[in-house]
UniProtKB/TrEMBL annotation:
<keyword id="KW-0210">Decarboxylase</keyword>
<dbReference type="Pfam" id="PF00282">
    <property type="entry name" value="Pyridoxal_deC"/>
</dbReference>
<dbReference type="GO" id="GO:0030170">
    <property type="term" value="F:pyridoxal phosphate binding"/>
</dbReference>
<dbReference type="InterPro" id="IPR010107">
    <property type="entry name" value="Glutamate_decarboxylase"/>
</dbReference>
<dbReference type="GO" id="GO:0004058">
    <property type="term" value="F:aromatic-L-amino-acid decarboxylase activity"/>
</dbReference>
<dbReference type="GO" id="GO:0005829">
    <property type="term" value="C:cytosol"/>
</dbReference>
<dbReference type="InterPro" id="IPR002129">
    <property type="entry name" value="PyrdxlP-dep_de-COase"/>
</dbReference>
<keyword id="KW-0456">Lyase</keyword>
<protein>
    <recommendedName>
        <fullName>Glutamate decarboxylase</fullName>
        <ecNumber>4.1.1.15</ecNumber>
    </recommendedName>
</protein>
<dbReference type="InterPro" id="IPR015421">
    <property type="entry name" value="PyrdxlP-dep_Trfase_major"/>
</dbReference>
<dbReference type="GO" id="GO:0004351">
    <property type="term" value="F:glutamate decarboxylase activity"/>
</dbReference>
<dbReference type="InterPro" id="IPR015424">
    <property type="entry name" value="PyrdxlP-dep_Trfase"/>
</dbReference>
<dbReference type="GO" id="GO:0006538">
    <property type="term" value="P:L-glutamate catabolic process"/>
</dbReference>
<comment type="similarity">
    <text>Belongs to the group II decarboxylase family.</text>
</comment>
<feature type="modified residue" description="N6-(pyridoxal phosphate)lysine">
    <location>
        <position position="262"/>
    </location>
</feature>
<keyword id="KW-0663">Pyridoxal phosphate</keyword>
Length: 465
């Protein structure tokens, strides 16, 4: 037999015996099945996404969604002229989301798909900054918020806007509407309530914040708009707490972002940004691309971007409709409440958010009722040994002496899985009571609920000042 013929067992092929190229660009080619096996096997070391209760993002998709994603692998959403139906489906989604969020005039609103809430938040923030400038704003623009996701720190730093984060006070973990006035001035471009906090899962009181801003306007004449970060609440409250007023029903709400790839149920890489009216999106942010012999407005930070996410989001919307989303999301809330009940029954934990659809998202957050020999980082670490990824982390800066834990329950997580988790938690707690670890946040493993800035904002400010 000639020497050069490869053995027909994959694991005896030379590519695998050479190992995975790691440093520098590889010199040689390998058979695709060998390269595939190397990559596939390496990924076995990743966590199991459906057991990852630290993420807010979609970890379950049905076969039709997977099929549409595979079929649209080659669709660039920016090529509106070449793929006009992809553009059309995106526009239908924008109209559907605007309708869901009660945009008052279907002919007037504008919106776009994005890669996620971060891009959508940047666009909402930029629009507010440009509107402020058009009103004659000069000096350093600022925005006012409570404990926000890291995308708002990014917005502040990348686009030179001062972030005025109202410190927490009392036992409340969301922004107090009555605190806002002290932080607003003529350079405040917007107030950003979070509708579904990343820390706790709780909704901030958008209607209360709007009323506080009405008061400020009556007293000072300052007319300050609201951008709602509804990353995960935007596809929950419309179905499960429809009477909660947080969206365009409040005239002060000029723009809203949400992540299609969180509670919107779309695959990773889908977000939405919607403005109440065309005038709320300054012309400077809009670029035109060719579309069916004419042109179409685009306003994104990216140029090329996959089209499958918007396509599959459209599939989700028409497949489920309002009734289907209500059924799916209410069931997720029930599963979250089942977890909260189980945790509460242990007597060890105090619930911060127990999965009540009127108070927050499909998540549960809790703290230790009293000090124990072990801490929540220990618990997070022990649970990880069974494959459960559940984040423990400190509260925001002004309350960072306190550690909490949060589990985000998502489509595809069942009551039965909650029971398995609670049984594992019981085992972990029994062990930790005997052998507490006393881990620090850094020691408890490299994953947390969100990114944090490498250089805290106050240090940047002092470096500048
Ligand atoms: C997840 C999240 C973001 C960031 O959204 P991505 O879709 O991950 O970019 C922003 N704000 C809140 C409140 C979030 O939960």
């Amino acid at each position: 037999m000639p020497e050069a013929i490869e053995p027909d067992d994959l694991f005896a092929m030379t590519g695998l015996s050479r190992g995975a190229p790691k440093d520098g660009f590889p010199d040689h080619e390998m058979f695709p099945q060998v390269a595939y096996e190397i990559v596939h096997d390496e990924l076995l070391l990743d966590g199991v996404s459906r057991m990852n209760l630290a993420t807010f993002c979609t970890t379950w998709a049905d076969d039709y969604a997977r099929r549409l994603m595979a079929e649209s692998l080659d669709k660039n959403i920016v090529d509106k002229d070449e793929y006009p139906q992809t553009a059309e489906l995106e526009q239908r989604c924008v109209r559907m989301v605007a309708d869901l969020w009660h945009a008052p005039d279907p002919a007037a609103h504008v919106g776009t798909s994005t890669t996620g809430s971060s891009e959508a938040a940047m666009l909402g923030g930029l629009a507010a900054k440009f509107r402020w400038r058009a009103r004659g704003g000069a000096g350093t623009p600022n925005f006012v918020c409570g404990p926000v996701q890291v995308c708002w720190e990014k917005f502040a730093r990348y686009f030179d806007v001062e972030m005025r984060r109202i410190p927490l006070r009392g036992d409340r973990l969301t922004m107090h509407p009555e605190d806002i006035a002290a932080y607003c001035d003529e350079n405040t471009i917007m107030v950003v309530p979070t509708f579904g906090q990343t820390y706790t899962g709780l909704f901030e009181d958008v209607a209360g914040i709007s009323a506080a801003l009405d008061d400020i306007e009556a007293k000072t004449g300052l007319d300050i708009p609201i951008h709602v970060d509804a990353a995960s609440g935007g596809f929950l409250a419309p179905f499960c707490a429809p009477d909660l007023v947080w969206d365009f029903r409040l005239p002060r709400v000029k723009s809203i972002n949400a992540s299609g790839h969180k509670t919107g149920l779309a695959p990773l890489g889908a977000g939405w940004a919607i403005w109440r009216e065309r005038a709320d999106l300054p012309r400077e942010l809009v670029f035109d691309v060719d579309y069916l012999g004419g042109s179409m407005a685009t306003f994104n930070l990216n140029f090329s971007r996959p089209g499958g996410q918007a396509i599959t989001q459209y599939y989700d919307f028409i497949r489920l409709g309002r009734r289907g989303y209500s059924r799916v999301q209410n069931e997720i809330y029930r599963v979250a409440q089942h977890l909260a009940d189980g945790l509460g029954a242990s007597g060890l934990f105090e619930m911060i958010h127990d999965g009540d659809p009127r108070r927050g998202i499909t998540a549960v957050s809790w703290r230790l009722r009293e000090t124990q020999d072990f801490n929540l980082y220990d618990l997070s670490d022990r649970l990880r040994s069974r494959g459960w990824l559940i984040a423990a982390y400190p509260l925001p800066a002004d309350r960072d002496d306190e550690t909490i834990m949060r589990a985000v329950i998502r489509h595809g997580f069942t009551r039965d899985m909650v029971d398995l988790l609670l049984a594992d938690m019981d085992r972990c707690l029994t062990l930790l009571r005997k052998h507490p670890l006393g881990l620090t946040r850094a020691e408890a493993g490299g994953f947390t609920h969100s990114a944090t800035a490498a250089v805290p904002a106050d240090q940047i400010a002092s470096a500048h000042g």
